[in-house]
Write a structure and sequence with these properties.
Number of helices: 2
Strand content: under 5%
Oligomer: single chain
Largest sheet: none
Order of helices and strands: HH
């Protein structure tokens, strides 16, 4: 029969796992380029949409027309129908 760890031991183990996970995530974020981009690819030419797959998006913005324009342009370049 195995001994059940005390709640404080279980909590400490859980806390160690959380800290390790967070430190990995922080290191990964710090290793990304300073401009904030993770990586880019050129848009496919011509677009090859998935059959039977529909994608809808809702953008909540305020005074970001340039971001909306770039997002919509990119979506059309990748095969969005309307």
């Amino acid at each position: 029969m195995t001994a059940v760890p005390a709640p404080s031991q279980t909590y400490r183990r859980w806390l160690r796992r959380v800290r390790r996970s967070l430190s990995r995530q922080v290191r990964r974020l710090l290793s990304q380029p300073a401009d904030g981009r993770v990586g880019t690819e050129a848009n496919p030419s011509p677009a090859d949409p998935l059959p039977g797959f529909r994608f809808f998006a809702v953008l909540g913005t305020w005074m970001e027309q340039d971001v909306v324009e770039a997002t919509v342009r990119n979506a059309f370049a990748q095969g969005v129908e309307e």
